[in-house]
Design goal:
2 domains, Tyrosyl-Transfer RNA Synthetase, three-stranded parallel sheet, mainly alpha, Rossmann fold, binds tryptophan, globular
């Protein structure tokens, strides 16, 4: 493999079905970098990360296959990307242990992602959960990745990985590039409830990549809205690539559901339609029933080809297994190179 190309690594945890949050957070970025000839892309199913929270063996078995099928269905291409299973490359765990010697317990306890999980599962705060970001840093550094396409919620983990890389390079003279957070939308895909982000663990918050038109219509119809008229306050401090506005209804209350709706409109129909709607919101008023029906249709049109491709792939078990086996081998080859270098620099070189 070429050394001049930049490396990309990403993964999605194998837990349940993928939704629009994953699609815009991680997958769109993964696809964009795969299409760019300047990058060499490694995409794994983060199946080992799945056991950092309580799980059922049968569910894990189903989910890791589901993520592989979803990867292929959305257009990740085994000709251009190395597709593999994290658990098939034991060097991830090996590097994770070496790196753990560089990280303080306090640092891991203070990560927001750790604190959230402690709240969700207070009776299951395991060592695996605490060292989740170290395994993730190992995933990234093992392939010397420069870019990591992930959702905004993963940003603290990328920062942790950068810090670990920096420390390792300065203490042991390793040559890890500092990995960069890569995100196309630049913000959370909002929950359909209007509060927080789209999340698998919040009912009514998400649209699955597998949802049919009727389901999408029903879910979109439930986004809370207002009378259709109000004020839009555009934020000048936009950190995101999306247009950034807040909506206040006729009584001056913030309409968070309207914001969710407008973000989805921008993602699926473009920013000019969102701007048109914002103008109407402040003049003649919006008719949400129509807007929602149109939006549901656009979402389904984007998902339909993915669903059709997935249905075909489900029947091609041998092809899918061969793709993963080949990806696992390529990943192992790269991983072995890095581990040999790390072992040598940490002092585990051969005796004689
Ligand atoms: N933590 C990521 C998530 O929950 C999954 C993941 C594991 C990952 N290892 C990674 C993402 C390495 C990018 C790079 O979505």
């Amino acid at each position: 493999m070429s050394k001049t190309k930049q490396r990309v690594l990403s993964g999605i945890r194998a837990t349940g079905q993928l939704h629009l949050g994953n699609y815009f957070g991680a997958i769109k970025g993964m696809l964009a970098l795969q299409e760019d000839a300047q990058y060499e892309t490694f995409y794994m199913v983060a199946d080992a990360h799945s056991i950092t929270t309580p799980y059922q063996v049968a569910d894990l078995r189903a989910s890791r296959l589901a993520v592989v099928l979803d990867y292929l269905a959305v257009g990740l291409d085994p000709q251009r990307s190395v597709l593999f299973l994290q658990s098939a490359v034991p060097q991830h765990f090996e590097l994770s242990f070496y790196l753990s010697s560089l990280v303080s317990v306090a640092k891991m306890q203070h990560l927001p992602t750790f604190k959230d999980k402690v709240k969700q599962h207070p009776e299951n705060v395991t060592m695996a959960l605490l060292s989740y970001p170290i395994l993730m840093a190992a995933d990234i550094l093992l392939y010397k990745a420069n870019q990591v396409p992930v959702g905004v919620d993963q940003k603290p983990h990328i920062e942790a990985a950068r810090e670990i890389a920096r420390k390792c390079n300065s203490l042991y003279r390793t040559t890890f590039p500092l990995p960069n957070f890569f995100n196309l939308a630049g913000e959370y895909i909002p929950s359909l409830t209007g509060e927080g982000k789209m999340s698998k663990t919040v009912d009514g918050s998400y649209i699955n990549l597998s949802d049919d038109l009727a389901t999408i219509e029903k879910k979109i119809a439930r986004i809370p809205t207002d009378s259709g008229k109000g004020q839009v306050k555009s934020l000048s401090t936009a950190k995101t690539k999306l247009h950034d506005s807040v909506y206040f209804d006729a009584n001056g209350q913030e309409s968070k559901g309207v914001k969710t709706l407008m973000i989805l409109v921008e993602l699926f129909a473009g920013s000019s339609l969102r701007k048109e709607y914002e103008a109407s919101y402040q003049k003649q008023g919006l008719r949400y029933a129509e807007i929602k029906k149109d939006l549901a249709k656009l979402i389904f049109e984007e998902l339909m080809p993915i669903q059709e491709k997935r249905a075909k792939l489900e029947k091609q078990v041998d092809y899918v297994s061969a793709v993963i086996e080949e990806g696992n081998k390529k990943a192992q080859t790269e991983a072995t190179k890095t581990i040999l270098e790390v072992k040598d620099k940490f002092g585990f070189n051969s005796f004689f």
